[in-house]
Amino acid sequence: MAAPWRGVIAEYADRLPFEPEEHAITLLEGGTPLIEAPALSEATGAEVYVKVEGANPTGSFKDRGMTTAISKVVSNGSQAVVCASTGNTSASAAAYAARAGLRCIVALPVGKIAAGKLAQAIVHGAELVQVDGNFDDCLRLARALAHAYPVSLVNSVNPYRLQGQKTAAFEIVDALGCAPDIHALPVGNAGNISAYWMGYSEYAGMTTAASLDHPSARRGAVVSTRPRMWGFQAEGAAPFVKDAVVENPETIATAIRIGNPASWAYATAARDDSGGLIDAVSDADILDAQALLASEVGVFVEPASAASVAGVLKKARAGQVPSGALIVCTVTGNGLKDTATALGERELDPTTVPAELEPAAALLGLA
Ligand code: F0G
Q1: Coil, strand or helix: which one is 169?
Q2: Are 311 and 304 in contact (CB under 8 A)?
Q3: Burial (CB count <10 Å: 0-12, 13-18, 19+), residue 295
Q4: Which sign does the torsion angle of CA 332, 338, 343, 347 carry?
Q5: Collapsing DSSP states into helix, strand and coil, what is residue 281?
Q6: Which residues does ligand 1 sit against, CB inside 6 Å?
Q7: What's the confidence (pLDDT) of residue 213?
Q8: What pLDDT, on a 0 to 100 scale, did the predictor assign at position 212?
């Protein structure tokens, strides 16, 4: 039997800026499923896999970067952390801070957080501040608080966040035995696309803009190729596509409702150095992709997560997906975080029958 998964710091210790004596704050994140998606392969003429990051302990990819960020906060002796969030970062920060016994302060855009994510921050004991503004305003506030007071910022501008998140790329190469031809993922604050590119590049023995900022990371060559990075934003929150800050971002995919991404330069480098692209998808396409993932792939993801799949389907419709290409789509967060959007107008009150064979069978059309 394979050894039990030990969390990303222990699994990739030789590739992360940690010393053996440093204590890891971990919930055994990472080691998530990479699932073949025949329905998507058929729709695109490619070979498509989904990396299911909703299987992480708090239900999103943020846990990979939170184990590294919070572990460093503890190593450095800080007692409190702060973050801005569209919901998943705060859920993850709250859980890892609880585990570490730290105070956790989160700044959230008022009224724009999915109920499940808000519940997570609350039950893990975070201190919530609702901000009359959007995510970009929250991040400005969180940065200012961390600058002026003894609280550590754990948004992805903290370099240890991207260090942890790059492990998803390692896992994909470890599972496939090679890098994919194309890696697709949603883009919001743009940390994750930068982290994946760093991970793929390190396995290929190369450095990136993001890794150069962090020379303590150790590197080695495992594979020789890197994928093209395909990032997808929501149309109403697409600063990369417009090549300008979006002042009032709007999308049903609240996790990526961001108009001024913090990792703008890294993500631009990931796109250009990989020969990739960052495009936008409509809210309708996002919801269609979410429904298809649920009904045909068997994976329930939150709306933002479906942007990667919506983007690949859009490119396939435009004839821009190379036939037979090996494609990995990261689906970033669990659908249970935002059931209201997924259910939409659907009927939630199925017909009631007595617990008896004949009426139930008749209702189901089996009799
Ligand atoms: N998908 C989900 C489910 C997310 O929560 C986020 C970001 C992204 C994609 C985009 O990733 O920001 O690295 O480009 N959520 C952040 C948060 C902003 O506060 O939870 P990114």
Answers
A1: helix
A2: no
A3: exposed
A4: positive
A5: strand
A6: 60, 62, 85-89, 156, 186-192, 255-256, 302, 304-305, 332-333
A7: 59
A8: 59
Q: How far is the CA of 135 from the centre of ligand 1 (A)?
A: 11
**Which positions of the chain have pLDDT values less than 50?**
215-221
Amino acid making up residue 235: E
pLDDT of residue 345: 80
**Element holding 230 (H helix, E strand):** strand 228-234
Cβ-Cβ contacts under 8 Å for 355 (sequence gap 6 or more): none
**Which pLDDT value is given to residue 347?**
78
End-to-end Cα spacing for the chain:
46
Among 50, 56, 88, 309, name the best residue to mutate to test ligand 1's pocket (greatest count of ligand atoms within 8 A of Cβ).
Answer: 88
Ligand 1: residue whose CA is nearest its atom 4: 255
Per-residue DSSP letters for 278-321? EEEE-HHHHHHHHHHIIIII---B-GGGGHHHHHHHHHHHTT-S
Please give the C-alpha separations between residue 158 and each of 185, 209, 338, in angstroms, as whole numbers. Answer: 21, 15, 27
